[in-house]
Amino acid sequence: MPQRHSKNNNDLAFFTYDEKKKLGYGTQKERLGKDSLKPFDACCLCLKPFIDPLCCQKGHVFCKECILGCLLAQKKDIKRKLAIHAAQQKQEKEEEEEKLMLQKAQELDAFDQQNHGAVPQYNDRSHVRDKHSFQGANSVKVTSYEEEALRTMKAFWLPSATPEAAVKVEAPSTDTICPEGKEKLRLKSLFPVYFTEESDDRKSGSLNSSYMCPSCKVTLTNTLTLVAVSTCGHVYCKKCSDRFLVADKVCLVCDKGCKEKGLVCLEKGGTGFSGHGNHLEATDFKHLGSGSGLGLVRPAATT
């Protein structure tokens, strides 16, 4: 009975499907599970159920304490970078002034040598003729500028005289950024978010608490697209938002007016440790090493 060569190793000039599968050759894709996604009611920074949630204009939700601490840390870091940049500018200015002073001193020395080159110079005490009495253009006497250059000359073969490349600090930006969306974020642009809890929940803010849409009474999950009203902070599902809020332009809970541009879609997921929105597929590419038969793996990426 003939054997199926695709199921066995052989000496063909190409890899069979079974051999590629055993070696893990090619691009492997896997959809992320529930454990790899951040719940919609979790903070983007601490990944815990949020407390006093605040939302940015891009739909990222944070705990109030977490986002205030993050913005404060960014402010301190910006202040430190500004101080370093100011010190560097001061040092550059001092170096430029010193360079100008040395250049002027060199010009004065050259002028003095040019005008007094043929006049012999004597010692003040003994009136003994100086060794280099004629300070002309062909003089071998080393000027102060040349002495300074020789003294500070860099030598690559001596560790103590090896030149070092100056690290230039660019002027830092004074804007704080969102830790999740990487866009500019100010404290006054954040608005509080209020979720409607289901009546079965006894303890507010507990780990087992669940939320619902105040219009259709549907339990909110990661499968639904959520919309928050920036004027009052109440959260609805996308279907009720398009049906009522966009048409009536009034919040159904507090009767406060809202505009279409004030409706913010909340982001699902969106951290470095969890899947993001619709990009819930992880890929792993493996190709074969030349001549070794071993696979070289590229790190998996979420696309």
Automatic annotation (TrEMBL):
InterPro entries named in the record: NOSIP, Znf-NOSIP, Znf-RING_euk, Znf_RING, Znf_RING/FYVE/PHD
Domain (RING-type) ranges: 213-255
Keywords assigned by UniProt, alphabetized: Coiled coil, Metal-binding, Nucleus, Zinc, Zinc-finger
UniProt keyword Secreted present: no
Any one GO CC term of the record: nucleus
Coiled coil (UniProt feature): 79-110
Any one Gene Ontology molecular-function term assigned to this protein's record: zinc ion binding
Annotated localization: Nucleus
One Pfam family it belongs to: zf-NOSIP
Family: Belongs to the NOSIP family.
Record-given protein name: RING-type domain-containing protein
